[in-house]
Amino acid sequence: MKKLDHFNGEYIRALATDEFVRRATPFLAEAPVPIPDDLFARHAPEVQQRVKRLDESAAFFDWVVGGPAEPTAKDWKKVMGRDGVDAVIDAVIEGLGAVDWTPEALEKLVLGVGEQLDQKSQMPVRMAVTGHRSGLPLFAPMAELDRTEVLERLRAARARL
Fold it and tell me: First-to-last CA distance in the chain?
């Protein structure tokens, strides 16, 4: 089955983006929370590079259209159990109040906090905002969320530390 998934993924990646969107769109209707077509279209090139089957497409948006996923205890500990994560989350929360709400500005803030504190910063922010250790590149979908929502997710994660 793995070999078939691999071949299927190669075929999906070879499709033109418009064709990928056309073929994947029917599977979006199966998502627990509706995924707007325009949201999917904006992020389709990134999704297309990551799926092996079209029915996997909707799962990349669970945290954008719904709440963050509940991370496994193992994932939470691996990412959020490191020394300095609390300082990273605190600094990102503080910085988000004044930053432009664009993917580029969010990336600059989060990575800048990591450099300033000499800590890995993207993974703890990803875990707090998405509930996942992997997925789409973080900053463009994060910019789709309301600033208040992102801050609430970061504060909730900080409270769990």
Answer: 39
Three-state secondary-structure class, residue 70: coil
Residue at a domain's end among 17, 35, 65: 65
pLDDT over threshold 90, residue 83: yes
CATH of the domain at 147: 1.10.10.350
Question: Given 3-state DSSP classes, what are the helix, strand and coil percentages for the chain, each rounded to the nearest 5?
Answer: 70, 0, 30
| Token couple for 50 | 């990551």
Closest CA to 95 of 111, 109, 116, 81: 109
* Owning domain of residue 43: 2-65
The token duo for 155 is 């504060």
Does the predicted TM-score (pTM) go above 0.90? Answer: yes
Tell me: do 91 and 58 sit in the same domain: no
Calpha distance 86→91 (Å, rounded):
9
